[in-house]
Amino acid sequence: MRLQGETRRIAFETGVQVHAEGSCLVRLGNTHVLCSASLEDRVPDWMKGRGTGWITSEYGMLPRSTHTRNAREAAKGRQQGRTVEIQRLIGRSLRQAVDLARLGERQLTLDCDVLNADGGTRCASITGAWVALALALKARGLESALKNQVSAVSVGILEAGPGLRQGLILDLEYEEDHRAAVDCNLVASRPAGRVEDVPDIVEFQSTGEGRSFTRAEALDLLDLGLTGCASFMDAQLEAIARA
């Protein structure tokens, strides 16, 4: 069992999609997400002529990424609200990473496909997508457009329960997330190359699932989450150095 402030083991396998400008398979415990970055010399019609770039995302879960088979959303004819919410979160989070003016009139599309889900899929997607994005910029000689490093982690409060840890928990597995009294997702950033900096908050999604929570608890959750994001950022840099 992990210590209270420990994340699950995170690992990145880069270059797994040979045709993508940047790609990685991120493994966060038993949550595995395939992330790719496609860089195109075009922008959406509504952005043409502005001299600036754009970053967007698509997210999906494969049918047997969960305990029981989920039908593909394409077969249903529409995306679920959760899918739309998560891919918008990924897109706006990763737009924090890039100087869009230096990117020029180019679009980066980040595809995040969940192979195995055991909690924290959106956080793993953001963390892995940053690695894919950084590799794509490097492949096209656009490293100067990389402004910030971005990662994300879940954090929550668990009450007493059979076989479960309790208190403030970092990087929740499915069973922990499912039973959490308070459930949060934190996205953070720090300037590229500034490894000594404490990450800043990009987005903090928090919900009292089983009870409300205090201001003091919210600050404790933020501090714990920022520690987790910083550890993921160190792992990201190690993956980029090995690629």
Automatic annotation (TrEMBL):
Its EC number is 2.7.7.56. Keywords: Nucleotidyltransferase, RNA-binding, rRNA processing, Transferase, tRNA processing, tRNA-binding. Phosphate binds at R82, G120, T121, R122. It catalyses: tRNA(n+1) + phosphate = tRNA(n) + a ribonucleoside 5'-diphosphate. GO terms for biological process: rRNA 3'-end processing; rRNA catabolic process; tRNA processing. One of its GO terms (molecular function) is tRNA binding. Pfam families: RNase_PH. This is Ribonuclease PH. The lineage of its organism: Bacteria, Pseudomonadati, Acidobacteriota, Holophagae, Holophagales. Coiled coil: none annotated. InterPro entries: ExoRNase_PH_dom1, ExoRNase_PH_dom2_sf, PNPase/RNase_PH_dom_sf, Ribosomal_Su5_D2-typ_SF, RNase_PH, RNase_PH_bac-type, RNase_PH_CS. Residues 6-136 form the Exoribonuclease phosphorolytic domain. Phosphorolytic 3'-5' exoribonuclease that plays an important role in tRNA 3'-end maturation. Removes nucleotide residues following the 3'-CCA terminus of tRNAs; can also add nucleotides to the ends of RNA molecules by using nucleoside diphosphates as substrates, but this may not be physiologically important. Probably plays a role in initiation of 16S rRNA degradation (leading to ribosome degradation) during starvation. It is an enzyme of class 2 (transferase). Belongs to the RNase PH family. PANTHER family: EXOSOME COMPLEX COMPONENT (PTHR11953), EXOSOME COMPLEX COMPONENT RRP41 (PTHR11953:SF0). Homohexameric ring arranged as a trimer of dimers.
